[in-house]
């Protein structure tokens, strides 16, 4: 069971979280207005394609990406959340800033997806007494430095232990297990070998008693394995990785290509029976 805000999912089939990036429109002077409009259009498209959750991000979490100011992040995401107030799926906000969490939840978001797993000062307090869903992700170091020689003695054990401790901290703050999701954080302070080890042994993470989310879509590990330079050429590789994650217990997949993922999961689900239809 996964609860976020007014939504409840029984997880009898894997859920698709569609990625909505709110990035400034460099082509026009319309600025905030046009980037919000484009993001809202994109979000509606993803719901039409079958997204179960939308993940809205105003700051790029890609390796080495420049941080965005609090004011800028709020200006990017709030018009998008407000513009989507009639949508029939939960909105997740991809942020690590407590002020953004509060403002997004007040504006109608139902979930917080935090690459820092609520380790930034004030983040736990911003969400503990709300009813939002929470995604706790593992990351080694920070987005600026994480891909500079990532190192682990035992990546699967260390990521598992980190997520176990974060779930415990949230439970100690009074957060119901039904609100939590864990994520090994593919590509966040990990080499290709680390990512492959985590995916290979993803099943081990299900013992923490909360759903596992996997974000593999278009990531550089897909590029490394296929030689596909451009992100839009990574669909087949992404589907393969995403389906593998689901076969190894992932209950939520974070993807850019919702329609294709929906089809791949429909075929997988039919083979697995699990009596849908
Ligand atoms: C995730 O895994 N990822 S943002 C680099 C790419 C392509 C895509 C080099 N937020 C996750 O999607 N939140 C991001 O090509 C996330 N889990 C959760 N929970 C990075 C991203 C990407 C990076």
Brief summary:
Helix content is 39%, strand content 15%. It contains 9 helices and 10 strands.
List keywords for this structure.
single chain; 277 residues; alpha/beta; TIM Barrel; 9 helices; globular; binds ligand YH5
**Helical fraction:** 25-40%
Number of strands: 10
CA radius of gyration is 18 Å
Q: Could you give the order of strands across the largest sheet?
A: 8-7-6-5-4-3-10-9
The proportion of strand residues reads 15-25%
Number of domains: 1
CATH architecture: Alpha-Beta Barrel
With helices defined by DSSP (H or I, 4 residues minimum), what is the helix count? 9
* Assembly type: single chain
Q: Report the CATH C-level class.
A: Alpha Beta
Give an overview of the whole structure.
The structure is a single chain. The longest helix has 18 residues, at 32-49. Helix content is 39%, strand content 15%. The model has no long low-confidence stretch (mean pLDDT 95). The chain is globular and about 45 Å long. It has helices spanning 32-49, 70-83, 98-106, 123-128, 155-172, 192-200, 220-226, 235-247, 258-271, and strands at 2-4, 7-9, 15-21, 53-57, 91-94, 111-114, 133-137, 180-183, 213-215, 252-255. The chain has 277 residues and is an alpha/beta fold. It has a single domain, classed as TIM Barrel, CATH 3.20.20.20. Strand 5 (91-94), helix 3 (98-106) and strand 6 form a beta-alpha-beta unit. The relative contact order is 0.13. It starts with a strand and ends in a 6-residue tail after the last helix. It binds ligand YH5. The site of ligand YH5 has 18 residues, from strand 7 and strand 9.
């Amino acid at each position: 069971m996964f609860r976020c805000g007014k939504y409840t999912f029984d997880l009898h089939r894997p859920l698709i979280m569609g990625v909505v990036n709110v990035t400034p429109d460099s082509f026009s002077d319309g600025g905030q207005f046009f980037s919000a409009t484009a993001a809202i259009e994109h979000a509606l498209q993803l719901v039409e394609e079958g997204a179960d959750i939308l993940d809205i991000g105003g700051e790029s979490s890609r390796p080495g990406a420049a941080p965005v100011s609090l004011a800028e992040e709020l200006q990017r995401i709030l018009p998008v959340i407000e513009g989507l107030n009639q949508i029939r799926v939960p909105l997740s906000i991809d942020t690590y800033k407590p002020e953004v969490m509060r403002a997004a939840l007040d504006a109608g978001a139902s979930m917080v997806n935090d690459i820092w797993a609520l380790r930034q000062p004030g983040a736990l307090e911003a969400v503990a007494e709300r009813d939002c869903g929470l995604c706790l992700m593992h990351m080694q170091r920070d987005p600026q430095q994480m891909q500079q020689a990532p190192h682990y003695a035992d990546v699967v054990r260390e990521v598992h232990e980190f997520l176990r401790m974060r779930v415990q901290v949230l439970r100690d703050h009074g957060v119901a297990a039904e609100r939590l999701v864990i994520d090994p954080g593919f590509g966040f302070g990990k080499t290709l070998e680390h990512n492959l080890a985590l995916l290979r042994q993803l099943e081990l993470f299900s013992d923490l008693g909360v759903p596992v989310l996997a974000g593999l879509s278009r990531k550089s590990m897909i590029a490394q394995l296929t030689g596909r330079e451009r992100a839009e050429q990574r669909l087949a590789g992404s589907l393969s990785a995403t389906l593998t994650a689901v076969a190894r217990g992932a209950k939520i997949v974070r993807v850019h290509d919702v329609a294709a993922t929906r089809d791949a999961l429909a075929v997988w689900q039919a083979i697995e029976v699990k009596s849908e239809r």
